[in-house]
Structures are given as structure tokens and as C-alpha cells.
Amino acid sequence: MKRKDFIKRLGLSTAVVAASSQLYAASKEASPKKVYFHYLLFWLKPDLDKNQIEEFSLFFEGLKKLPYVKNLRYGKAADSSPRAVLDNSFTYNASMEFASLHDLEAYGKLPQHIALVEKYKPFFNRMLVHDSVYENK
Known about the structure:
This protein is α+β, with helices and mostly antiparallel strands. It has five helices and four strands, in the order αβααββααβ.
């Protein structure tokens, strides 16, 4: 009798685990996760020499190390074929990923972030920022 009860309990436990897994998977599908992006464009001053332009990339390397930043990629304008909708007049751009709006806004207030911006501010004469939210489906 004990063996029969054990087998019944084992079967019930397996069914409960399977049902729980299905409920968890369904709940993840029901609520898409939002991802926040902070997109930056920089127009460096025209009087900077080649070394100073390359040195500016250290700004992004510093930002990568800050709390809240999940991912950061940066680069220069691509040599794309001209099109009416294309503006490749910027020198550098960066795309930063954050887990939440709270993280994005907390990052912007970090003393280390503010110090990096102040250090590299003399390198650029224009900066443009776009913040976006995407739903991961």
C-alpha cells in the first residue's frame, strides 16, 4: 500500500510542477517586459585634432562602467549612401540600454555621470538625446 501511495503522490507532484511551469510561462507572455534606451548624438568641435576625436571615445568607456547601464554601444556615422531622410552629420552616437525608467533617470543623476559629462563637454558643440521604451514581446 505504501508503494502505491508513493506513486500517486509522485504523479500528483509531477502534475503540480508541470501546471506551475505552464502558469509561469503564460504570465511572462501576458506581461511584456519594457526596455528603455537612451540614444545620444554628438557633434564634436571642428577644431579638434584626430587624437582628440579618438580620445572622446573614452567618454563612452567611462559611461559603460556606471551603475544601471545594461548595455552601451557607440560609434561614428556610417558612410551610407546619401538619402533625403539621412542625417549623418554627427561625429559619434551611442545607444544605452536600461532595465527601467527608474534606472535611466537614476543614472542621469549619478555624480560619476555628471563628472564625465563635465570632463568631455569641451569636446562637443552639440548633443542630442532621445529616450525610448520598447516592449520585449
